[in-house]
Specification:
The protein is an all-alpha fold. It has 2 domains: 35-143, Histone Acetyltransferase, Chain A; 167-262, no CATH class. It is 75% helix and 0% strand. It contains 12 helices and no strands. The chain is rod-shaped and about 110 Å long. The relative contact order is 0.07.
Length: 271
């Protein structure tokens, strides 16, 4: 039946008059595989190459028969075999059992180390395991699994750093816009205020209330008229800078010190 289907396909493609539009379309370029896809693809290829060898498949493709080798678990604490890795490999990859190809590598290396530990040198199983271990390392390097995975991790780290930096950059940009707007508003208010202390007071009051209000600020401003005109202008200019930094608490403290000093000067003058 398969041969018949191939024949029908050939006849259709060679028939006269019919031409599908797909024949004139540009072939779509293959999507380039990501480093992670290349790494996991290498994992599957290496495992397939090992299991395609009959001797390796026969000895290492299934778990060790504990009944046939009752002392095995006294020598080997963590049994592992290629069949277990193969049977669970796809599900492990899909479910995240192997978080990295390096975990797969360690499981395969465990197969060889168990073999060399249990079987003495000179034993044919020992020699087979030694040769398979060497072949695995060669295939592992040939497919560049670890190199591809390092590239993947570098991409992940860069993406994570960008994801962390992006909100911080947006917040910094927004904060800078707010500060610039406050400073602009402060400079406009400074230009509108005339030389009368009451105008300065209202301008500063509006500026500070934009960032912070309350009884403390009201109490300070109620004594605004006690300050000399030159100091009023200096304080207002400082308030414009405080507005750009949103340093309302520092500005309140500065005002309070100025008012305390003015009150002390007034008391000294009246003596």
């Amino acid at each position: 039946m398969a041969a018949g289907m191939r024949g029908a396909t050939a006849a259709t493609s060679q028939g006269g008059g019919r031409c599908s539009s797909s024949e004139h379309e540009e072939p779509h370029p293959k999507r380039r595989k990501s480093p992670a896809q290349l790494a996991w693809g290498g994992v599957r290829s290496v495992l397939a190459r090992l299991l395609n060898q009959p001797a390796v498949q026969h000895v290492f493709g299934t778990p060790v028969n504990i009944l046939g080798y009752p002392d095995y678990l006294q020598v080997v604490q963590q049994p592992m075999d290629l069949g277990t890795i193969q049977n669970e490999c796809c599900s492990r990859l899909q479910d995240g059992w192997y978080a990295t190809p390096l975990q797969f590598r360690d499981d395969v290396r465990l197969v060889w180390s168990n073999c060399l530990r249990y079987n003495p040198p000179g034993d044919w199983v020992h020699e087979l395991g030694s040769g398979a271990s060497q072949q695995f390392e060669e295939l592992w390097q040939l497919h560049g699994v670890e190199r591809h995975w390092r590239e993947h991790e570098a991409q992940q780290q860069a993406a994570a750093a960008a994801a962390v930096a992006a909100p911080a950059e947006r917040q910094a940009t927004q904060a800078n816009r707010v500060q610039q707007q406050r400073l602009a508003d402060a400079l406009v208010a400074l230009g509108e205020a005339d030389d009368e202390p009451l105008s300065w007071r209202h301008a500063l009051h509006k500026l500070l209330k934009a960032g912070k209000g309350g009884a403390t600020l009201e109490g300070i401003l109620s004594r605004w008229g006690q300050l000399p005109k030159q100091l009023l202008q200096e304080l207002y200019e400082e308030a414009a800078l405080a507005a750009s930094r949103a340093d309302w608490q520092g500005m309140e403290a500065r005002l309070q010190r100025a008012l305390d000093a003015a009150a002390e000067n007034a008391r000294a003058a009246s003596r």
